[in-house]
Amino acid sequence: MSDVEVMIAPNVIEYPFRRTTGPVIGAFFTALREGFVVGVRGSDGRVIVPPAEYDPVTAEELTEIVEVGDAGEVVSWAWVAESLDGHPFDRPFAFALVKLDGADTPMLHAVDVAAAEQMRTGMRVAARWRPARPGADDEVAEGVRYREGHIADIECFVPEGDR
Amino acid sequence: MRDIAVISFAQSPQVRRQPDLNEVEMLMPVVRDALAGAGITKDRVDFVCSASSDYLAGQAFSFVMTLDAVGPWPPISESHVDMDGAWAAYEAWVKMQMGHVDVALVYAYGKSSPGDIRRVLTRQLDPYYLGPLWPDSVSLAALQARCGLDAGSFTKADMAEVAARSRRDAKANAWAQLSGDDDPAELLGRDELVSPLHVHDCPPVTDGAAAVVLAAGDVARELCARPAWIRGIDHRIEPHALGLRDLTRSVSTEQAATAAGVADGPVQLAELHAPFTHQELILRSALGLGDDVVVNPSGGALCANAIMTAGLIRLGEAASRVTAGDADRAVAHATSGPCLQQNLVCVLEGE
Known about the structure:
Chain A is mainly beta. Chain A contains one helix and eight strands; from the N terminus they run αββββββββ. Chain A has one domain (22-134, 145-162). In chain A, the strands form two sheets. In chain A, strands 6-5-4-7-8 form a five-stranded antiparallel β-sheet, with no helix packed on it. The longest helix of chain A has 13 residues, at 22-34. Chain B folds into two domains: 4-116 and 205-228, Peroxisomal Thiolase, Chain A, domain 1, CATH 3.40.47; 131-201 and 229-349, Thiolase/Chalcone synthase (Peroxisomal Thiolase, Chain A, domain 1, 3-Layer(aba) Sandwich). Chain B has twelve helices and twelve strands. In chain B, β11 (329-336) and β12 form a beta hairpin. The mean pLDDT of chain B is 97. The chains are: A mainly beta, B alpha/beta. At the A-B interface, β4, β5 and β6 of A face α5, α6 and β5 of B.
């Protein structure tokens, strides 16, 4: 059958939903827009970053928002030698689990270094922030992605000394 | 509890790309073979449960069209899960426990070839913290593997050994996509795909389908000389966020194994749904399997990993080996979600 011409129709799946983020996830995104990071205190007192709405063990509703640092330690990392469409970079980079200062759980993000040899578990990294949105009277630069309350408001993490 | 058994198992050739057959055409011979294996026609089937993903098919309610593979006329009793077929088997098992169903047909299918499966799977991630970064399935598994390597739970040589053994065992499995004799040291010499994972640590991209027939009590004994009785079955899930989990363990597998009674007797054989080499090592530990247990004689998901299907194949492979008399007590396992988030464990016994 393989010599039969197969009809192919392209089909792009979209994700065209808008949602409200609520008091916990919303607090995280609002903080990102302002240039800092928050988590939430879990039932056992640990600080969960990014914040979870319900405790992963007790299922208790969590409400105590806690500010944490924007630098921390790499807990694990994966070197993406060939990036895929949608990835934070179109060049080699690392995905990493980063435990921010003051947090008890790591978060997933990208680390921008030139080569895998510059990555190691336990290394210190810091957030590289996108610029704050200019005020109403200020000039908006062409092609700049400003902070808007999105996980990509942190463009990536970089080795702490490089920030 | 009613006694319920797997009495038949069939699968399609598991291949990299199946462009010539649509899902119905891919399934029809599989359903025919599964029913023939039980020695029945479809009028003996009281309940049909299927498993597939609209994200692979590219349209909503795609499973409705695939019902043509079983011929839903006159009207049949059926259900569907957007999960691996092992969970469809679980739903059928629950329905049979309620007492109104004696024979159930469970099937699953997935064609990954039309899209980029690493990217498609990112759409199962939470849309706030993870989805916008498009962390693909291989990258997430690589994060998990490094946690285990850093903790000293296993080495890259252990992982390569899993790959080589799986491919060697798959030589006896005519349905497998990958098989062969590979030297683990040679595999380790090749480039990494997403460090620390090499290509041999990752599952192939597969199109495939599978089906099992379940039957209860005396009906199972009537239709099968040696039914594979389900003595325990349970599934558990962990938090979605990787940061909330201990990635060096599989806590949900440990919980499911306890509930299913894995340790209540000796295990001779296990079919583990471990798409990545390090995940087999994590699962062996979570299930408490000793070195004397035969693991993945089929070659496992490292040699054929049709999405939504590979877990049901583990159930079918384990059951057919019990039925064949190769094992008296076997474990089947299925997983779903990133980095072994959700796990199903089933204990099968011969009589």
